[in-house]
Write a structure and sequence with these properties.
heterodimer, A: 314 residues, mainly alpha, two-stranded antiparallel sheet, rod-shaped, B: 571 residues, alpha+beta, 4-stranded antiparallel β-sheet, 12 helices
Chain lengths: 314, 571
């Protein structure tokens, strides 16, 4: 069959073609103006699935980093305090040893006062706060963990509060505080409040306050034998504090490592998301130029096709 | 014989004039939608028997014929049905995409992340009141996001309903016009025996438009009336159209129906099919997914939340679940969440005397009724059947909700303070006690007033200790748990899957629409190649008939001079 070409059909075809070309130009312009390759789910249903999952995972990752930052600063603060206590204990051991060798009762009393001052410092450290919360209070973050009571003139006695439910694992001075630092990984970001000071319970072995009070009093009382044995006890206490500091230091290091790997993972995910979502500008602009050229061609050809007919010549 | 030849000239002029009118009519309709080009068929007149043989008597326009291509036209009618279906379907699916508003930073995905992240923030400092308020804000944000998604999807559904209504009116208007055209065509073709070319064009165009809306079948009877049926429902018979209207189907959606009988018309194609499919299947799926997501968020968050402890403990607390049948065992008492075998714990702490009374309450959902559990609680706290416990008492309020009351100075918590044990029976979840969300769908989810009115009621810990953040961590962790799709995907995965599914459906619909449009365009092209007016062709015909007219006139002139010779020359 010979093909008849009617005027309506020329016109329709032309309009269809121009519309199609115009839509292609518009799509590319939209992509370039939003900067996104995917502007609605139907643009790339698989891409959007991955993009949404990645977005959630990136958002979680950022939260983990915040949690780590908070945990790390809390651990650093704890480590700093423990280091100060460490050096205080070391100093006390030094001056106490000197006192054992000294014979002057006046110097004993001075040493005792000096130790008393340092004991007070340790006591203050035990009640230190970080961001307004007691560092060694366990989960009882708003209750002062160690309290003192002054018994007589210049004698300072330190006692610990009886925290109502300290037996519970989640409760009281030994309550553990965790932070989620990676998916499924909860990390302890505090230290049991009793461990550096009263590892074996109140009045038990290595009770730092009892030991120092006794040391102070024995020096004051020129009781050289007791002083010597207490200095030996102080050795263990020192060991305990150092061990705790080291443990926390290790934990902090590990936390930084997790943070680094989270960061790497985050960068990888960001890149991945950007690959899926963001438009490739070079390609899009090249495509746009090409499409604009095609559109212009179709418009020019159109004006040439529409005008001539036999009617022009009769 | 003498003057007859003059008439041959007249006939030629008359025939060419007729043909010229047809050419003019074609030219006038070069842009008319649905116009079929016409042709004047010129035939020679009946000859006269004469010596030496038959003598021609000129020509006349025998008929004005429409040049159509019925085969392509019928194909086009069929493809129009699919075009209508796909275009409405893709419109509606694209609207769903717009509602979901992904990928942006204001979609549901973001709200979900922020909600669960806010529990991490609380975990980092459970003592901070601001962190508790943040959770309430994020909880409200998440639920209002779900509300607005659900209501926007419902809007799209009612738009589809409106479309059905609109298209029903369109069908009625088209069928009425077809019926009236039937009458005119019948009178022209049957009574006057002529071709109703332009009327047929109009009827065919209307029938094609009707096919775009609804799948119809038709036949023409001996009176040239077009009978139209939609899957057994008569739309046009003889010169009458049958009105259709809408009825609500079992799901409350509008469907086309016979106006008189109210019987639903079964829809096989066309825009109706597109609207009904998108509305009843795709939109409903999206809404169902959203509901199921919301329901799971409510249940999972509530479960963990009910196991934790508030900051201060409770003087009294009322569950939000109405216990339908408190005397029947818990499995049959009409609960949304059914408890499992296990225990929950009650701790009453007196802050002034620092004394603690705690009890384990066992739950066996197959043998215990709500009344049994209430008695068990009261008995544990020193009461009995119908006798309230001393420090803590339980009862059903007038609305049928579980209620706990404490004695003066006592604060109630739902953990065993001395061991850290928490509810493992889902009993508190089932009764809606110490829960975070209320509602059971995307439409109804909301943060409970009990939380909104007092941020301290958010369960951050699992002990009576202020710095305990363990429960907040567990709630935050729900976001990474596989809680959906038979424990195969997280909330976020599930939502991403839903968005992706809508995207796939929409992509397929858009492609179908595009393909169908080009198929229809191709068929229209093919039809136009027969029926369309070509100005070149008409120009040529114009010249042909102009010459014919001129020649006819010339012939008369010649015959006139011949007669002149005869009449004047001989005398």
């Amino acid at each position: 069959m010979a093909v008849r070409i009617s005027n309506l059909s020329i016109q329709r075809q032309l309009i269809n073609d121009i519309n199609r070309n115009q839509k292609a130009v518009q799509d590319l312009q939209y992509k370039l103006s939003t900067g996104y390759n995917i502007n609605s789910p139907s643009d790339d249903p698989v891409g959007i699935l991955n993009a949404l999952k990645l977005k959630t995972s990136i958002s979680e990752g950022r939260q983990y980093q915040k949690n780590i930052d908070y945990g790390a600063s809390k651990l650093s603060a704890t480590i700093n305090i423990l280091s100060s206590i460490e050096s205080l204990v070391l100093d006390i051991m030094g001056i106490a040893s000197d006192a054992v060798n000294a014979t002057s009762s006046a110097s004993h009393s001075v040493t005792a006062q000096e130790i008393d001052g340092m004991l007070n410092e340790i006591y203050l450290h035990a009640n230190a706060k970080f961001l307004g919360r007691y560092v060694f209070g366990g989960t009882e973050t708003t209750t002062q963990p160690y309290t003192e009571s002054i018994v007589s003139g210049n004698t300072v006695l330190i006692e610990r509060t009886a925290v109502a439910n300290s037996v519970e694992s989640f409760k009281g001075i030994d309550g553990k505080i965790y932070a989620t630092v990676a998916e499924g990984l909860d990390y302890q970001i505090n230290i049991s409040g009793s461990v550096p000071f009263v590892p074996n319970g109140e009045g038990g072995v290595n009770d730092i306050f009892d030991t120092l009070i006794n040391l102070r009093d024995s020096i004051n009382n020129h009781d050289t034998a007791t002083t010597a044995s207490l200095i030996k006890d102080l050795d263990d206490i020192y060991e305990n504090v150092v061990t705790q500091t080291t443990l926390l230091g290790g934990r902090l290091n590990r936390l930084y490592k997790i943070k680094d790997s989270n960061t790497d993972l985050g960068i990888f995910k960001d890149e991945n998301l950007s690959n899926i979502l963001n438009v490739d500008h070079v390609k899009a602009i090249t495509d746009l130029n090409y499409q604009q050229f095609v559109l212009q061609m179709s418009l020019q050809v159109g004006t040439k096709m529409i005008s001539p007919s036999l009617m022009d010549y009769i | 014989m003498t003057f007859e030849s003059l008439y041959i000239g007249v006939e030629a002029m008359r025939a060419s004039q007729g043909a010229l009118s047809v050419v003019g009519h074609n030219i006038a309709n070069v842009n008319t939608e649905g116009y079929t080009r016409q042709r004047a068929n010129i035939e020679s007149n009946t000859p006269m028997d004469k010596f030496p043989g038959q003598m021609g008597t000129g020509s006349h326009v025998e008929e004005i014929q429409r040049l159509t291509d019925s085969f392509t036209r019928i194909q086009l009618e069929l493809e129009k049905q699919k075009e209508g279906q796909y275009s409405v379907e893709s419109d509606i699916l694209q609207e769903i995409e717009q509602v979901l508003n992904e990928p942006t930073d204001s979609g549901l995905q973001q709200a979900l992340s922020e909600f669960f992240n806010s529990f991490h923030t609380l975990a980092n400092a459970p003592e901070e009141f601001g962190n508790r308020n943040l959770i309430i804000e994020q909880g409200i944000n998440l639920s209002s996001k779900l509300h607005s998604l659900a209501s926007q999807l419902k809007d799209v559904q009612s738009q589809a309903d409106q479309l059905v209504e609109l298209k029903v009116n369109e069908v009625n208007s088209i069928t009425a016009r077809i019926a009236s055209l039937n009458k005119q065509i019948s009178s022209v073709e049957v009574a006057e025996g002529q071709n109703a070319n332009d009327l047929r064009d109009a009827r065919e165009l209307l029938f094609r438009d009707l096919n775009k809306i609804i799948t119809v079948t038709s036949y023409e009877d001996e009176n040239k009336n077009l009978f139209v049926e939609a899957n057994g429902s008569v739309l046009v018979a003889h010169t009458k159209s049958v009105l259709i209207s809408t009825v609500r189907d079992v799901n409350g959606y509008l469907v086309p129906a016979d106006k008189n009988s109210g019987t639903e018309i079964i829809i096989k194609g066309g825009e109706f099919k597109g609207a009904l499919d998108a509305r009843d299947i795709k939109l409903q799926d999206a809404l169902d997914s959203l509901d199921s997501l919301s329901k799971n968020i409510i249940t999972e968050v509530n479960r963990i939340h009910s196991q934790g402890t508030s900051l201060d403990g409770f003087d009294s607390i009322t569950g939000d679940v109405v216990i339908g049948e408190p005397a029947l065992n818990l499995v049959n008492s009409g609960l949304e969440n059914i408890p499992v075998n296990g225990s929950f714990y009650l701790s009453a702490f007196n802050s002034s005397t620092q004394s603690l009374e705690e009890h384990e309450i066992t739950v066996d959902p197959y043998s215990d009724s709500m009344n049994d559990i209430i008695t068990r609680i009261n008995t544990a706290f020193g009461g009995g059947v119908g006798v309230p416990g001393i420090n803590v008492s339980a009862s059903l309020n007038s609305a049928g909700q579980l209620e706990f009351q404490t004695a003066a100075n006592y604060k109630l918590q739902f953990v065993e303070a001395s061991t850290g044990n928490v509810d493992d029976s889902d009993f508190l979840l089932a009764a809606g006690v110490n829960t975070f969300f209320e509602g059971d769908s995307a439409y109804t989810i909301s943060v409970k007033d009990f939380i909104k009115d007092n941020a301290n009621n958010i369960s951050a810990g699992r002990s009576l200790s202020i710095g305990d953040n363990s429960n907040a961590l567990m709630i935050a962790d729900i976001a990474t748990q596989y809680t959906m799709n038979n424990n195969q995907s997280t909330f976020s995965d599930y939502y991403a899957g839903m968005v992706s599914e809508v995207g796939t459906d929409s992509q397929v619909a858009i492609r179908n629409e595009e393909n169908q449009e080009s198929l229809v365009a191709m068929l229209e092209e093919r039809l136009l190649s027969t029926t369309g007016v070509s100005l070149d062709e008409e120009g040529a015909n114009l010249l042909v008939y102009q010459r014919m007219y001129q020649a006819g006139a010339k012939f008369i002139n010649v015959m006139n001079s011949v007669l002149d010779t005869l009449i004047n020359g001989l005398v």
